Amino acid sequence: MKISLLILFIVALFTTASVAQERITDEAEARAIFEEVDDRRNSIQSETSVMEMVITDNRGRTRSRTMQSWIKNNGDDTSSLIVFSAPGNVRGTAFLSVNEGGSTTQRLYLPSVGRIQTIGSAERGDRFMGSDFTYEDLGDQNPDDYEFEWLEEHEEIFLIKANKPDSDQYSYVKFEIIIETYALRTVHYFDSEGNQIKRLEAEQFEKISEGLWSPAKMTMFDLREDRKTEISWSNREVNSSIEEWRFSERGLRRGI
Fold it and tell me: Is residue 227 part of a domain?
């Protein structure tokens, strides 16, 4: 009798787990969940912050960077500016990303040569300032950039698989989205052979506005090179006024 009860208990557990992880091959449903994530991120008008970047190579050696960030949302259009303040050899370097009408333009200012470089499609997979984030990673995660394939609903997260047709780096990605807050917790990146090549982990979530929780720390792991880059945020201020010139050539060259 005890064995029978044990078997029934195991079967019940297996059935419950299967239901919780049922795969839903409904592109529209998966897209709707990701669009909710995107809508919540764009629910604030602006954000300023200080960012700390720590790059760790495969021998455990670290390099640190300090940056100031400005972000402005206007409906589906987003502009962001990052300016490096330390150390001295990168001070004044600035990166501008503007998403307007579904098209993204990225520009990098290098004070050492005094010129602005436009990031073209051939450079999208390059490392940003030696980090494990590429220029593609720093662009908006627009739902229109993905072809959603399926989703699973687990106890705490939605797991969504999406293809990236226009990416030279990634064949597809898997998003872990926290059900309670619709915040991205983890992103898994895969190549055309199905190998996971990178992983982005978000943690230390903060409620920065009604309905929007954002991580105070994100870590990108390069699984091929056995290295990582951590970015942490502090001094966050939302919905404050930001001058339009910040998101222009003047803003790139002027710095902080």
Answer: yes
Q: State residue 19's pLDDT score.
A: 42
Does residue 18 belong to any structural domain of this protein?
Answer: no
Each as own residue / partner, the long-range contacts of residues 90-95 (CB below 8 Å, 24 or more positions apart, any chain) are 90/65, 90/129, 91/255, 92/255, 93/129, 94/251, 94/252, 94/253, 94/255, 95/128, 95/138
Q: What is the CATH number of the domain that holds 103?
A: 2.50.20.10
* Chain mean position to CA 205: 14
pTM score of the predicted model: 0.89
Which residue's structure tokens are 């627009």?
142
pLDDT at 15 over 60: no
**Which tens digits make up the pLDDT trace of 191-223?**
999 999 999 999 999 999 999 999 999 999 999
* Nearest CA-CA partner of 67 in 54, 81, 79, 82: 82
State which H helix or E strand residue 29 sits in. Answer: helix 27-41
Whether residue 217 contacts residue 233, with contact meaning beta carbons closer than 8 Å, is answered with yes
Residue 57 lies in a domain: yes
The 10 Å CB-count burial string (b at 16+, else e) for 151-184 is bbbeeebbbbbbbbeebeebbbbbbbbbeebbbb
What's the number of domains the chain is made of? 1
- In three-state secondary structure terms, 179 is coil
Q: Which residue has the tokens 């989205």?
A: 177
